[in-house]
Structure formats: C-alpha cells, structure tokens
Design brief:
The protein is an alpha+beta fold and 458 residues long. The chain is built from 15 helices and 22 strands.
Length: 458
C-alpha cells in the first residue's frame, strides 16, 4: 500500500495527482524550485520540499535531490507526472533501486518505447501497421538516401530519442535531403545526447489519433477509447477532443484493437498512450507510445467516468484493474483547450508575468485544471500553460457550444493569452465538421495574420 507519495512535478499536473491521492488517503509531498516557492501545488500538498534553483536542470530534473527528498520525507512512491523525468528510464530504475514504487511502467518499458526505432521494430513484430520507412536506425547519409529513393518524397527525418519536434526535418525534394539529414543529427545530439536517426514517409492531410491505454501487472490491458489530437501548432497539441468524430465504426474497432494488441505485445503494465497517424484514405499507422500520463487525459476521463490517475496508482501497487473492458462505455463528447500565456499577435511568443485578475468559468460539465490563481506569477523558466479548460456535452455540437461559453466567461489579465485564438477556432466550419487535419492550425493562423495585416493597413 502506498501511504505517502512524492509528486516529481509542478503546476496543474501535480495538483491533479494530489487530488486523487487525497481521495485515496495518500499523503502527498510536493517538490519545488526557488522560482516556484509560492506556487499552488506547494500550498496544496501535505508537505513541500525545495529541490533546487529555478532552472529545471537544477531542480525538477535533479534526480538525486528528488529521490533524497522522497526518502527523507518517508515516502513510499514517486509519481513523475508528465514532462521532466516522466519518461526517463534511468530515473525510474533509480527509484525502484532505493526501494520506492515508481508510479508508471518499468524502466525497461520506458526505454523500449522511448526509443522510436526500437518501438517501431516491436510493432512490426506484433504486426501493427507502421509508417513506411527505415526499420532500424540509419547508419549514414548513404543509407538515408537509399531508403528515401524507395519510399519517395515527401519524407521526415526524425531522431530516435526525439520528441517535441526536435531533431526532425521535413524533406520535399531530393536535393534538400543531405542538408536536412546533417542538421537533424546535430540538433538531436545537442538536445538528447543521441544522434541516432530514422526516416519515414511524410503524409499530408492526416489525423493524429491516440488511444488511452490502462494496464496492470496481471496481464490486463484495456482502452479508454480514442482522442483526436490533430489540432496542433508546431507539432504541439493545442485542442484535443474525445472521441474522434472522423472515425467510422470499423476504423475505430481496428484502431482500438491495434492499440491493445500493441500494449500486450510489449507486456505493458501501467497507464500509457499509443499514438497513430491516419492518412487521407483512413489507414492508420503506429507513430509512438507515451509511457506516462498525458496532458489531455481529462477528455478521456470525461467520456468514460474513469479516474486515470487512480488506475495508474492501483497498477503501481500491483492491484488488478477494478473494471473490465465491457465496463468502459463512451458517453458524449469532451473537448480540452490549452490556455497558454502567449501573445498570438507576436507569433505566439511566451508572455511571462503576474496574473493581476483571473476569473474561471463555472457550470455543469465544465472542468478547470490549473495551479494558477490571481496574483500568481508565470515565470520564464517553464511551460507557459496557465490552465486546461475542459467541457463535456451529450453531443459534439453541444460540447463546442459549451466551450464557446466557457471561453467567453474565462478572464485572465496581466499576461497575454490565447483565449481569443481558441474562441475563433471553435467558430470555424472545418473544426465544427471535425474533419480538420494536423495542417489546419497552421493554415488558420496564416488566415488570421492576413486579416490582422488588412486591419492594420486600412
């Protein structure tokens, strides 16, 4: 039994985990940097320990300080949240080596699925469709060129240890291949300390659909249906929804089946997400697996009524899942908007500062996840997300209308935000129809910039 848990994270996800811990009678310990001393997650926890300076490398990424904080405070377990050390196999291994429970999958699974090349090979062995491209890591440019000639253009060069768009290059013509390959390797080496690369075919007009997986240490693997995460800017998700309205019943059945088979094939034993790309023909391909809780997990909770964090903690304790796949039923539609401190009129530049006024929406089926409050300071050291605004509706259109109303009610002053941007998106026909692709956000932003320029010059 876990009686006391350290949350190795900050902000809204730390608060989210603490809420479930309180319901499960688990004492919580927060960690914080000197820049976060007045943060809400510090005040909300039962105890709080400073683990270093403002920069993440000195605090939220300081494995030794975090583990010592857990041991010195008498914790039984560590939950990594998302980001920071959540998918670091070394950290997961160290946690278990000192006798603590790591609330997440084993270090072996994190390492296996964290390496894009190894993960792809595992999926091929499990007969899960993967994006056409290199099977293993590319040895040199000559091999890259040979594979490119086979799969054709456009294509993507990606870092095996990559994420967040780093170490990634799009190549549309053959003459650009060598320069893209070399620059991607250099960026990957600088970002991850690993310049292992692979190549995949690049599809246009695609959907990014992911399946929420819940598993335990007794061989049970379930899905909580899928999420549509296609509304992205610079490969970062901005709006997510569940379920994906663009899927047919047959496509959904195959997607969910592939996701469960993929998780079972690697012996997965915790909460995770399997991400797929769906091309214009409706064919889906495995992209990657995230071996952690996702930012957008609330939309899956809203449509199924299942507390994913609770399931994750139960699995870490070695307990079997308290429900079966037949118990998981979809009710309605949920949408999440990530509200960030950024200036949409300055190319979405971060907008750190102090929140001078903040009013959040209330009402039936409206959920807020945040660690921000009136008077809180958004520092330049970490992610600029202020809050996640989540709504539920019996139908997708009802959810869209409810989100519009919630955005109208949401007031944040003192920093620039992207509230207006979300509000405009939810009035666009492409979004309302649910047929938008991963390229839609960029084209919509270009249209907005054109309108802004027209207004300024007339």
């Amino acid at each position: 039994m876990i009686k006391k848990m350290l949350i190795a994270n900050r902000g809204e996800i730390a608060v989210r985990i603490m809420r479930t811990c309180k319901e499960m009678n688990i004492m919580t310990v927060a960690i914080y940097s000197l820049a976060d001393e007045e943060s809400y997650h510090v005040k909300f926890a039962d105890e709080a320990i400073c683990v270093g300076e403002a920069h993440a490398s000195s605090s939220y990424l300081n494995m030794n300080n975090i583990i010592m904080a857990a041991l010195n405070s008498g914790c039984d377990a560590i939950h990594p949240g998302f980001g920071f050390l959540s998918e670091n196999a070394i950290f997961a291994s160290l946690v278990t080596q000192v006798g603590l429970i790591f609330v997440g999958p084993s270090a072996h699974l994190i390492e296996l699925m964290g390496n894009k090349v190894k993960a792809k090979q595992a999926m091929i062995e499990a007969r899960i469709p993967v994006i056409p491209g290199s099977v293993g890591a590319i040895k040199d440019f000559s091999e890259c060129e040979s594979i490119a000639n086979k799969i054709g253009y456009p294509l993507m060069i990606k870092a095996a240890a990559g994420g967040g768009g780093k170490g990634m290059r799009f190549v549309f013509e053959k003459q650009d291949l060598e320069n893209a390959f070399n620059s991607a390797k250099q960026e990957a080496k600088a970002a991850f300390g690993d310049d292992e690369m692979y190549v995949e075919r690049y599809f246009t007009q695609t959907k990014h659909v992911e399946v929420q997986i819940i598993a335990d240490k007794h061989g049970h693997v379930l899905h909580l249906f899928e999420r549509d995460c296609s509304f992205q800017r610079r490969h970062q998700k901005v709006i997510e929804e569940a379920p994906c309205v663009a899927l047919t019943k047959l496509q959904r059945r195959k997607l969910l089946s592939d996701a469960v088979r993929a998780a079972k094939a690697v012996g997965y034993d915790s909460v995770g997400t399997i991400e797929f790309l769906m091309d214009s023909t409706g064919q889906t391909y495995f992209m990657e697996m995230n071996t952690r809780i996702q930012v957008e997990h609330p939309v899956s909770e809203m449509i199924t009524g299942i507390d994913i964090i609770k399931a994750m903690i139960l699995a870490a304790q070695g307990k079997p899942l308290p429900f079966t796949q037949k118990d998981v039923v979809v009710h309605g539609t949920s949408i999440e908007c990530r509200i960030n401190a950024e200036n949409i009129r300055a190319n979405f530049a971060p907008s750190p500062g102090t929140i001078s006024f903040m009013h959040v929406p209330f009402g039936a089926h409206v959920r807020i996840e945040t660690a921000m409050y009136q008077g809180a300071t958004i520092t330049p050291y970490y992610d600029s997300m202020i809050l996640k605004l989540i709504v539920w509706g019996q139908t997708r259109l009802e959810a869209i209308k409810r989100m519009r109303g919630a955005l109208e009610e949401l007031l944040i002053e003192g920093v620039h935000t992207n509230i207006e941007f979300h509000y405009l998106v939810l009035h666009q026909k492409e979004f309302i129809d649910g047929r938008y692709t991963t390229e839609y956000a960029s084209s919509f932003i270009k249209e907005l910039n054109t309108v802004e320029e027209f207004i300024r010059t007339t």
